[in-house]
Write a structure and sequence with these properties.
Helix content: over 70%
Shape: elongated
Number of helices: 9
Structural class: mainly alpha
Strand content: under 5%
Oligomer: single chain
Distance between the termini: 29 Å
Radius of gyration: 19 Å
Number of strands: 0
């Protein structure tokens, strides 16, 4: 589970980095987050209790930025911050020592290719090595 959370954060950070050159709008950030999570506007409406037509207004050609209370409900339903929806970045979801974690990306990618049995064996080996290191 932790690995999936890290991969999710890394993917989000990579997506954020692509927006660095031009600050995306609330509309773009909301649309990108819905696409990223595989959600429809109708599903978001159900999660937030906000009428679908209202959400469509935030995503439409004549898009508008919602009031703060609505933005908070949308952000909570998507498990992101309001800051992320408004600016496209959020320091809270990106670890301060992000560069340290990038070294693990290739290992995580390789790990995802392993069978369940190999993953269990690897976990046993890692725990055994960590226990030995603690003794030193």
């Amino acid at each position: 589970m932790i690995i999936h959370q890290l991969i999710y954060k890394f993917k989000r950070k990579i997506r954020q980095l692509t927006y660095t050159f031009s600050m995306p709008s609330f509309k773009e950030n909301l649309r990108n987050e819905l696409d990223f999570q595989g959600l429809t506007v109708k599903e978001l409406a159900a999660r937030t209790g906000i009428i679908k037509g209202t959400l469509d207004n935030y995503l439409g050609v004549r898009s508008s930025i919602p009031p703060a209370d609505i933005a908070v409900r949308i952000a909570k339903a998507l498990n992101v911050s309001v800051e992320y929806l408004v600016t496209g970045t959020d320091e809270k979801i990106v670890p301060k020592n992000y560069d340290r974690f990038t070294a693990y990306l290739s290992m995580l990618a390789d790990y995802e290719k392993l069978t369940t049995g190999s993953k269990k064996s690897l976990a046993i080996m890692i725990h055994a090595l960590a226990s030995e290191e603690e003794k030193l």
